[in-house]
Amino acid sequence: MAVLLLASVFVIATAGLVYELIAGTLASYLLGDSITQFSTIIGVYLSSMGIGSYLSRFIKDDLLRLFIRVELLLALFGGSSAAILFVAFSEVSEFRILLYASVMVTGILVGIEIPILMRILKDEYDFKELVSKVFTFDYLGALLASLLFPLVLVPQLGLVRSGFLFGLCNALVAGATLEILAKSKAWLKSERIKVWIVVATMVAGLAGGDMITRWGESLSYPDPVIAAMSSPYQRVLMTKRANDLRLFLNGNLQFSSTDEYRYHEALVHPGLASVPDAKRVLVLGGGDGLAVREVWKYPGIEHVTMIDLDSAVTDLATKNSLLVALNENSLASPKFHLVHQDAFQWLKNNHELFDFVIIDFPDPSNFSIGKLYSTRFYDLVKSALSPHGRLVVQSTSPFYAKQSYWTVVNTLNASGLKTAPYHAYVPSFGEWGFVLAGRDEYQLPESLPTNLKFLRLNDLPNLFEFPSDMQASVSTINRLDNQALVRTFEEEWAHYVH
Amino acid sequence: MFTSRSKGNGVDRRLLLKGAAAGLLATSCTTTLHPRIVGADHALGHQLRSRSFPPAEPGPKLGALIIGSGAAGCAAAYTLQKAGHGDFQILDLAIDAGGNARAGHHGNISYPWGAHYLPQPDRSNQDLLQFLADCGAIKSWNATGEAEYNEDYICHDMEERLFYQGSWHEGLIPWKSLDAGTVSELKAFTAFTDRLRQERGKDGRLAFQIPLDRSSHDSAYKKLDSMTFAAFIRGQGWHSPFLTWYLNYACRDDYGTDWEETSAWAGLHYFAARSGENGKVLTWPEGNHWLIRQLLRGIESKFQGGELVHAVKRVGESWQIESWNEKLAVNRLWTADKLILAVPRHVSARLLPGLAYDRNQMTYAPWMVANLQVKSLPEGGEGTELAWDNVPYGSPSLGYVVASHQEIKRYQGPSVLTSYWPLTGGSSDYLRSIAGMRSADDWGRMVLADMEAMHPDYVPNIEKIDVWLWGHGMIQPKPGHLWGAGRAALNEQPYPKHILAQAHSDMSGISIFEEAFGRGVDAARQILKGS
Asked: Per residue in A63-103, pLDDT tens?
């Protein structure tokens, strides 16, 4: 009896710590800021264990039966906590309340366990030995958990299935205790049914855990999630591994800090450096502030207006220290003016003129976004261009989506603008395309800002050369009533996705 | 990243879960949604039949008075004003101008209560094209004389889609899901109407034209008016269920009338009267009310709503018209040299004895239109994105139209969906009385069930349902009416044409904007001739 119960102390301790680690990791994944999350989770968990230990004094008799029941409850709550939290994250508005409640329940149950066990064992050993043995196994279990968790459980099983695995361990402890120590008890049968139900639930969870994991988004990102939020418009999420900071909007990569300078230098400089005496810049999209960082490399810029609907992104760009470091606090300038509005609506009422307009929208993957690549939209942007002003459009990959890219060029031409298509290689995106457009022909700039990491003046002409596999003859014009671009884009990317 | 999340965010899926429960309870939802019936001016209109009014107080003396502010009345007003004859007033029973082309507003979203689009007119319809240019819907004319439309008003892609056998298909015909027999029937029908579109009668006119009176009078075509569209199609040996549904849908959509009751000439007119050189439709969030506003631009003050015209008399050299304003409790006497009657025949025949009106020949289709205020738009669903016009195959409704479709926005927020229900499947009188007996909750349940069938679990996104009943929604082009003696008699009147003009799509026998507009313009020109 004693050996069995001491072994169960070990299992219980391991499981208990695993639940705690799951909660902490989940909270950091989903809510970001791992220091705060782990610290608060540990605090709540340990104090709840205290509450549990306190509550154990009110348990008078039938200790064994109660122990089995606590184990089963722990199996249910602890074992399925990861699954429940994952699913609940997107469905429940007060996720934190659920998170801490789950941690508390698990903590309290774990807190009840050890005192009860000690009371069951109190006749087997003398007090000195009892305390020594129980806590030895308890702490050894914790060690095992802390090693298993990062080395085996998370990489091999993932959070959800690790939870169910240890839920199963708890249930098996309950089962073993029941079958070995409670053979003669009248309640054997009724408890046995409960044990089987819980064991079956945990096995089912283990088997189906993969499916639940797919529900949880964080695990589908290769790198640890450091910030995640849902704005009314989209899911905003940042990951970081070593020096690679990444921003995802609705699961689509916006930049990787390892090579974003290539994208943003290519987006901004060939155009802005070519506009003589540029003072006023308009940025449509680009809420991460990285394009604006490039704009400030021109001392003559007096004013930058950014239209980005989603304050969740611009808040991140002004408050998240990692992103602020990356965008060099570009959005904090007094010359910077931010408007949270739909670009089309804003342009419709706009009377200001700009020397350079940066259009950095997501790829035209649906009809709502496709409208922002239409003749109608470009007509409106054109009316915001100063006489010698120029605009640049990020226009998807001329390699992966050749027809789409040239459709954008063609659409800008149809709006009566003279275009200069070019491209650059950005490792995380592949070969990427941009189009410059203005009322007059594009002239290469005579100089570039000095502190660039990617572009060199001598290389610029090459960007405007397209090799054969990125050329296409396209006659389609993307109009609001044909959405030619979205239709082409869908077809082209379909070859590369899946 | 899991794909089910690609379009939405946490909020949407949360709704989805709640929706799963609420969707099952679609019926009980109506109790919390409190559907209501709005726009009930038929009650006031019916007073025309029975009520007596206090003695009239003398009112303004005018050059011309227009009774009725639907598309025809407004087109007449626009034409008079453009010709420099601004001495007129428009009276209407309704508070707002527009007739079938009225609109509602919710926050900054406008939505239609009835007519909601205009196909790009053929080049032959110069009056209409000129008006569209006047109001900026046409921006310019290209070298070959074709109209360049303002892109904001051309229905954006995706225009329409069909919910067929559990999934959405772009367009109204799910070509890939149909069997070979059906496809060949559809192709044969299309080839047939393509041919018909080019054909001319012995009189040299095109077989089918808009306005309809410009069509050929060749009996080879006119005789198509003596049979139903359904009979004609079956006579061609076409029986497939899908073609049957499709052509019946077309009749219900354009005429509010089942194809078993629609004249074959009218059914074919729908497919063959437009040359198809453009093939696009113009639309606005508020539907055709946008056109009404353009017609009345600058002359808004000449419109007087809430006026029930109940007596029209020719006294000496002028017209004396009495109208009752229920709100002000005033019975007013208007005096005018000329009169344009721009009301449906079942009203004008009561106002002016001597106008032909055969109740059995001229029947009106009742309609129900529901506007649904929604928190967010339905998802595109498998295969297609949300379209402007979303049509459920086999439903008694025509589906729904998205009011915010023409908006250029990255993220669509709350919107309004307009659900159209031509009430068919019985005599129009019977259907009208049945419609009157239904409560707002009854209609609400029908609409919710229709939405639930197309979009499972979407119902919780619906915040409000407003219902509008059009008792006499549209004149019905039943066999024999268009080219029979009945419609010809509508032109007869007891007064000379330069002092009394009649302007209504009733005169054409089909209720479309082009006909009403043409009738209004003609009526104005007619009374101007005598000036």
From this structure: 888 889 999 999 998 888 888 877 665 445 567 888 899 99
Confirm whether B3-33+364-474 and B181-279 share one CATH topology: no
Instruction: Give which of A84, A86, A91 to mutate to test B binding, by max B Cβ within 10 Å.
Output: A91
Instruction: Tell which of A233, A339, A368 to mutate to test the B interface (max B CBs under 10 Å).
Output: A368
Nearest C-alpha of chain A: how many angstroms from B328? 41
User: B9 and A217: CB-CB below 8 Å?
Assistant: no
Reply yes or no on whether A379 is catalytic.
Answer: no
- B311-337 burial code (b ≥16 CB/10 A, e <16): bbeeeeebbbbbbbeeeeeebbbbebb
Give the Å distances, CA to CA, from A351 to A183, A339, A346, A386, A459: 86, 15, 10, 11, 37
List the single residue in B13, B408, B409 with the smallest CB-CB distance to A90.
Answer: B13
CATH topology of domain A259-494: Rossmann fold (3.40.50)
> Among residues A259, A360, A440, A459, which one is catalytic?
A360
Tokens of B169: 């298909």
User: What residue spans define the domains of chain B?
Assistant: 3-33+364-474, 43-101+287-362+477-529, 181-279
Domain A2-220 matches domain A259-494 at the CATH topology level: no
Instruction: Classify domain B181-279 at the CATH topology level.
Output: Guanine Nucleotide Dissociation Inhibitor; domain 1 (1.10.405)
DSSP secondary structure code for residue B121 in this structure: P
Shortest CA gap B96–chain A (Å): 28
Q: Please state, in angstroms and rounded to a whole number, the distance separating the CA atoms of residues A119 and A121.
A: 5
pLDDT digits (tens, 9 = 90+) for B254-311: 999 999 999 999 999 999 998 766 679 999 999 999 999 999 999 999 999 999 999 9
State whether residue B408 sits within 8 Å of chain A by CB.
Answer: yes
Contacting residues of A for B410, CB less than 8 Å apart: 233, 309, 342-343, 361, 368-369, 372
Can the peptide bond before residue A306 be classed as cis, meaning omega within 30 degrees of 0? no
Candidates B155, B156, B282, partner chain A, best to mutate (most A CBs within 10 A): B156
pLDDT, tens digit, for every residue of B508-517?
999 999 999 9
Neighbours of B53 (CB within 10 A): 14
User: At residue B471, what are phi and psi to the nearest 5 degrees?
Assistant: -60, -50
C-alpha distances (whole Å) from B493 to each of A320, A381, B498 are 79, 57, 12
Residue labelled with tokens 């002359």: B299
**Fold assignment, B3-33+364-474:** Polyamine Oxidase; Chain A, domain 2 (3.90.660)
Do residue B151 and residue A481 have CB atoms under 8 angstroms apart? yes
d(CA B176, CA A115): 69
C-alpha dist (Å) from residue B95 to B41, B107, B164, B325: 9, 20, 40, 10
Taking contacts as CB-CB distances below 8 angstroms, the residues of chain A near B2 are: 214-215, 217, 220
Question: Tell me, which fold does domain A2-220 have in CATH?
Answer: Growth Hormone; Chain: A; (1.20.1250)
Domain boundaries, chain A: 2-220, 259-494
- Beta strand pairing status for B138-141 and B147-149? antiparallel
Q: How far apart are CA A290 and CA A269, in angstroms?
A: 13
Are A312 and A303 in contact, with CB atoms under 8 Å apart?
no
CB contact under 8 Å between B156 and A483, yes or no, is: yes
B43-101+287-362+477-529 carries CATH number 3.40.50.720: no
Chain A interface residues (partner B, CB cutoff 8 A): 89-93, 214-215, 217, 220-221, 230-235, 248, 250-251, 309, 342-345, 361, 366-369, 371-372, 374-377, 479-483
Q: Quick one: pLDDT band at residue B9, thresholds 50, 70, 90?
A: very low
Check: CB of residue A27 under 8 Å from CB of residue A185: no
Distance from the Cα of A342 to chain B's closest Cα (Å) equals: 6
